[in-house]
Specification:
This protein has a single domain, classed as Nucleoside Triphosphate Pyrophosphohydrolase (Alpha-Beta Complex). Helices cover 22% and strands 34% of the residues. The strands form two sheets. The chain has a three-stranded antiparallel sheet, with no helix packed on it. It has a two-stranded antiparallel sheet with strand order 3-4. A hairpin with a 5-residue loop joins strand 1 and strand 2. The protein is globular.
């Protein structure tokens, strides 16, 4: 997990997350975002789920692809400027703090992971 600022708002807890760069594959994006936000190399091995959350008052919709995989060597590089620190928490430590979650997707992703939801990466089809 990462601790980050929610704009000018409070400090929140989130999974490493971000945006696709132009011409970037989804798997390349997840590797890059985890590296940029935590300093860890991440090897996605499967998908936990795909989540959509809409903020009607702001006219925004977010889509999250939640991956599971293995982390390896930590690199000495500073995290993104929005990231305050990397947090290592148990599932219950995360779920017991819903008021600190960046969005409801944090708990949904974690609950699905803890329930054993696992899908093959072959579900992802990128058509260029």
């Amino acid at each position: 997990m990462v601790e980050e600022r929610d704009g000018d708002g409070p400090t929140v807890i989130n999974q490493p997350a971000g945006h696709l760069e132009d011409n970037e594959s989804l798997l390349a994006a997840v590797r890059r975002e985890v590296m940029e936000e935590t300093g860890w190399a991440f090897d996605p091995q499967g998908l936990v789920g795909v989540y959509k959350w809409r903020l009607p008052d702001k006219g925004l919709t977010y889509v999250r692809y939640c991956f599971w995989g293995a982390g390896s060597q930590r690199y000495e590089r500073p995290p993104d400027s929005e990231i305050l620190r990397t947090l290592w928490l148990t599932g219950s430590e995360i779920l017991d703090r819903p008021q600190r979650h960046r969005s409801p997707m944090v708990a949904h992703c974690l609950r699905d992971y803890l329930a054993g939801r696992r899908f093959e990466l072959e579900l992802i089809n990128e058509i260029n």
